[in-house]
Give the backbone structure.
Amino acid sequence: MRQLVKLLLWQFLLLKVRFNLAYTNVPANAINPDSVVLAYQNMSAPAGSEVVLQCYSQRMVWTQDRLVDRQRVAHWDSFSDYTFNRILDMFSADEQRLYNPYDQGRIMMSPSAFSSGNFSLVIKDVRATDRGIYSCHLHHHYCHLYETVKIQLNITKAARKVKRFWDGEKEVVVALLGTTVLLPCENYSPIWTERHHEEEQQVVHWDRSPPGVWHDQADRLIDLYASGEQRSYGSQFIRKRMNISDTAFKDGDFSLTISNLRLGDEGLYSCDLHHHYCGIHERRIFTLSITQPIKVNLTHKTPSTAVEIPNVINVFIPDHSSHFLHLLGYVLATLLLLAILITIIALITRQHRRRGLQYNVKMSQPRRTEVNLNDFVIDTTGLRTNKNEEIKFADYKNNILKEKFALSREKVELLREIPPKNLDRDFEKKCWK
């Protein structure tokens, strides 16, 4: 019995190891055994929610060739007598550029170099100054590929010395002076010989396999091409819930968005990025598990699933005539209180204004102070006594003067008998009037 248990355990471990190897080491395409698994991620999400399986790659960003396929170029350079010279440039659009005008028609490349793969340099009428080390550079700016071939050219005047050999680092060509020589540079790789349409060479696949199913039996979900073409597989219900951004090849974001998760969405998802033109093959694997949906409990609150829901009570009041009268009474009472407050404020303001206009004369007059003449000292040194004596009636020359004098004395006596007039009372009476 123990042996049977051990045998079952060993079989289980073996299946697990095979399962891991199958999803990490199987190439994305059987034709490209150099595919690399860059990420392996476990994810879980509740049913009914939305999940995003992130798949990014800037190497897959598509930049359309606007310069007639100038992304591929071949350069020929020479190094002799401690001087470096650029000889020739050739683009994949069959355009050649010579840097030295004296070499026009003497140094050239085959016009079909990017279709035949033969980038050899032809030098006519070889001169002694052509001696040196030549370099053939192949650049692919779109795929970031750079290849270099070096060839040493020696010049001789003896025909018997013409030969080609390998010195361990580069090929050496000994050419006869005045003849035509061919410096070999060949590369027949499809990336150099064929002008591919990049939008047809870049594709992204999203596959899904249920738990326990091998990757070679996975179901295809979506195919997305750089040209903008998108193919979705499966039922219409699955197509609506699984989407990729329309600007994926512009932003480098090939993430898969799954909405309204179901328990049947569990399984292994893989994002396969293929750039057949540049030889890029990458894979990212996601293990998705679906949990139970979050239930809202109003009585028991947990830190993870606590959702506060306000208790709202809706009260519906019947629309009867009595209800309308109640509302009308509230409005009239409010208006009455407002009118009373305005009246009280107006009365108080008017009273304050009246008090401000009253003028109390007694309060405004300055206080009088009694003055005692005895308190003052009068200097009489400078005064003189009146020497005029009282005029007697007998001194006047006639009776008319006597009568005038008598009348004046009577008036003085009458004025002494009349009491003094109070000016303050008269002023007060005028003010009150």
Confidence is low (pLDDT under 50) at residues 17-34, 387-391. The radius of gyration is 60 Å. Residues 44 and 304 are 15 Å apart (CA to CA).
